[in-house]
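Q: What residues go here?
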């Protein structure tokens, strides 16, 4: 294995952190050429991989127990391949096996295109909607992510196959969740910009993966109907000028690289964890 391509979709930056970490680890382990490509609306036309590519890894977050809609748009543009090895790396905000449908559903698309899907992996990252974990918990997740990418890289180099198997109920639940895409567009139209804070730097425009944001000649920032609810505009605005009327949906952004470098070893999980924190504790101890 000499040439690896990592294609990733990331709004808030969590999956980008994982993809770049994996890229770095592959390089440290002697892969001659490994590169990353961010999936966004600028990738147009058929996606064709060089004959020199030995492995393609698709990395993305999990939205409502499924892959983001932009991943399925990408799948439709992938040129049919005959046996090109592929891997899937999902980055959910919870370790529940219900999220594994996001890997299984996308794997089906790849197999129909002729890809040989050899691995499906997951790395839990801090959640970006509904609830925000403490910086202490987030820093532990970032450090765990760095350990996980080493394990994943070694598994690929060792030719170890893996499939994530969601429970049957997860597959049933994920079907109606596909209607979420319609709701995302409505959700995105409701973003608001605090004009007193906004400096018109254009970061939200350039960072939006689906080109859904524009700044008019009048200076007004507008949001279209293509939102995929990735939270990138809120997370990456340096002035914190973007908000949403449904404030409970969004969370305060994390300092990705600052938290990943944190040396805090405190046990910040509840003494008797339940639900999410019980699953999280098990994941961190693996």
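A:
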């Amino acid at each position: 294995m000499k040439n690896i391509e990592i294609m990733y979709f990331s709004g808030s930056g969590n999956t980008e952190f994982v993809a770049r970490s994996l890229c770095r680890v592959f390089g440290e382990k002697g892969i001659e050429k490994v590169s990353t490509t961010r999936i966004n609306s600028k990738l147009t036309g058929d996606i064709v991989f060089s004959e020199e590519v030995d492995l393609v890894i698709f990395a993305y977050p999990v939205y409502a127990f499924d892959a983001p809609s932009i991943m399925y748009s990408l799948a439709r543009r992938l040129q049919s391949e005959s046996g090109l090895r592929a891997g899937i790396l999902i980055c959910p905000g919870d370790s529940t096996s219900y999220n594994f449908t996001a890997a299984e559903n996308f794997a089906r698309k790849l197999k129909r295109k002729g890809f040989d899907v050899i691995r499906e992996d997951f790395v839990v990252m801090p959640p970006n909607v509904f609830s925000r974990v403490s910086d202490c918990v987030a820093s532990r997740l970032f450090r765990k992510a760095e350990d996980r990418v080493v394990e994943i890289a070694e598994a690929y180099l060792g030719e170890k196959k893996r499939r994530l198997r969601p429970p049957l109920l997860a597959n049933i639940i994920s079907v109606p969740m596909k209607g979420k895409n319609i709701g995302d567009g409505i959700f995105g139209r409701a973003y608001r910009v605090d004009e007193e804070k906004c400096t018109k730097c254009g970061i939200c425009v350039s960072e939006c993966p689906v080109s859904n944001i524009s700044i008019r000649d009048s200076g007004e920032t507008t949001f279209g109907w293509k939102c995929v609810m990735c939270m990138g505009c809120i997370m990456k605005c340096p002035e914190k000028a973007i908000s949403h009327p449904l404030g409970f949906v969004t969370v305060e952004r994390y300092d990705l690289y600052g938290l990943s470098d944190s040396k805090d070893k405190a046990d910040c999980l509840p003494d008797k964890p339940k639900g999410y924190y019980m699953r999280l504790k098990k994941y961190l101890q693996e």
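A: Context that may help when evaluating the design: The mean pLDDT is 89. The longest strand covers residues 55-61.
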